[in-house]
Design brief:
The chain has about 400 residues and is of the alpha+beta class. It has 2 domains: about 5-205 and about 305-370, 2-Layer Sandwich (Antithrombin, Chain I, domain 2); about 215-305 and about 375-405, Alpha-1-antitrypsin, domain 1, CATH 2.30.39.10. The protein has 10 helices and 17 strands. The chain has helices spanning about 25-30, 45-60, 70-80, 85-95, 105-115, 140-150, 165-180, 275-280, 285-290, 315, and strands at about 5-10, 15, 65, 125-135, 155-160, 195-205, 220-225, 230-245, 250-255, 260-270, 295-305, 305-310, 340-355, 360-370, 380, 385-395, 395-405. Strands 3, 7, 8, 9, 10, 11, 15, 16 and 17 form a 9-stranded mixed β-sheet that branches. Strands 1, 2, 12, 13 and 14 form a 5-stranded antiparallel β-sheet that branches. Belongs to the serpin family.
């Protein structure tokens, strides 16, 4: 029997982000307000931080950057086509308690989250969408198509994968268009054995309300390790920022809000305490930081940096209990009537750039299936050693990472 890999790609696109001054009360209110996606928000689950720790441990002392939104949405959409133990592993891996929350409520919450995040908003752009490219020679179940259209707002396209060059161009052109040309040629080496490509894109763009001045940027040391330093372009600005000293985890948290409801958190562990902070990361910790940030005059030093990450999630997710989908035990009967289908590969790629004007961030997750075969004096905070970074939109964690080497 000829093998027909089923290729499923999830894409998180490029964006530009900027500082904004928020009133403390408004910021705290937003962090406490429930949203339609609250129960599925990656920030409220252990999955995202377990995934971060797994990614970080696979590459010690290296940069880490990924999109929890992209990965979790990829798995949630995939679960629509799974059955039996395969489905249970994915949903429980994402933090869903099937005894307390019915599966349909889980997907409906994602649906509401997508609808809310796709609404026009003042100050920044955040658009989300999905697309399903299917080969007419393969019978994809109507129930699966209907579910991804209704719950994940996916567009559907018929593609002749028998002409892989043309199919690859069609899909890559779509991706490039949705990401404003920031991610091109995402799919490579497509061949006639592929039968489906699923794309989920997120485009985020905003500007700093108070940009860093180029005139204040200076070359300074960044201590990659206590013994090793590299020269970086260090931005600086004295202004009111959000600040919290987490004495339990031995770290300083600086909140740099974007226009709209998004916020960047820069977390600076005390010297030698990075692992302690990483071990303490969870949804409760993130919510505590968001709720306890208060305005403070800071003299902030932050390096310009550009980092990227590429991860083979089929090697990582089994460590988090999501394994059947990558084996001959996979039950993907909800996608097609073919019985011998499994996920052979799941790739996640992400990048972020921070400069005086703002932040640019992009990510992509590819899943490949195939048949079995307080007002005080200014406080000086210098991010001149490895630190963590998060980008949130209300309670939803869009990006997370570690800057170990700018």
């Amino acid at each position: 029997m000829q093998l027909f890999p089923l290729l499923c790609l999830l894409l998180l696109s490029l964006g530009v982000a900027t500082l904004r001054r928020h009133h403390t009360r408004e910021m705290k209110k937003k962090s406490k307000e429930p949203s339609g996606g609250a129960m599925v928000a990656p920030s409220s689950r252990g999955f995202v931080f377990d995934l971060y720790r797994a990614l970080a441990s696979s590459a010690p002392n290296q940069n880490v950057f990924f999109s929890p939104m992209s990965v979790s949405m990829s798995l949630a959409m995939l679960s629509l086509g799974t059955g039996s133990h395969t489905k249970t592993q994915i949903l429980e891996g994402l933090g869903l308690n099937l005894q307390n929350v019915p599966e349909n409520k889980f997907h409906e919450a994602f649906q509401q989250l997508l609808q809310e995040l796709s609404q026009p908003r003042d100050g920044f752009q955040l658009s989300l969408g999905s697309a399903l490219f299917t080969d007419p020679v393969v019978n994809v179940r109507d129930s699966f198509l209907s579910a991804v259209k209704t719950l994940y707002l996916a567009d559907t396209f018929s593609v002749n994968f028998g002409d892989p060059v043309r199919a690859q161009k069609q899909i890559n052109d779509y991706v490039a268009k949705q990401t404003r040309g920031k991610i091109i040629d995402l799919i490579q080496n497509l061949d006639s054995t592929h039968i489906m490509v699923m794309v989920n894109y997120i485009f985020f763009k905003a500007k700093w309300e108070t940009a860093f001045s180029h005139e204040n940027t200076r070359q300074q040391d960044f201590h990659v390790t206590p013994e090793t330093a590299v020269q970086v372009s260090m931005m600086s600005c004295e202004d009111e920022y959000y600040y919290f000293l987490d004495q339990n985890l031995s770290c300083k948290v600086v909140g740099v809000p974007y226009q709209g409801n998004a916020t960047a958190l820069f977390i600076l562990p005390s010297e030698g305490k990075m692992q302690q902070v990483e071990n303490g990361l969870n949804g409760k910790t993130l919510r505590k930081w968001l709720e306890r940030l208060t305005k403070r005059q800071l003299e902030l030093y932050l390096p310009k940096f550009s980092i990227e990450g590429s991860y083979q999630l089929e090697k990582i997710l089994p460590k988090l209990g999501i394994s059947d989908i990558f084996t001959s035990h996979a039950d993907l009967s909800g996608i097609t009537d073919h019985t011998n289908i499994q996920v052979s590969e799941m790739i996640h790629k992400a990048m972020v750039e921070v400069d005086e004007a703002g932040t640019r961030a992009a990510a992509a997750t590819g899943t490949i299936f195939m048949f079995r075969s307080a007002r005080l004096s200014p406080l000086r905070i210098v991010f001149n050693r490895p630190f963590l970074m998060a980008i949130t939109e209300t309670t939803n964690l869009l990006f997370f990472g570690k800057v170990a080497h700018p």
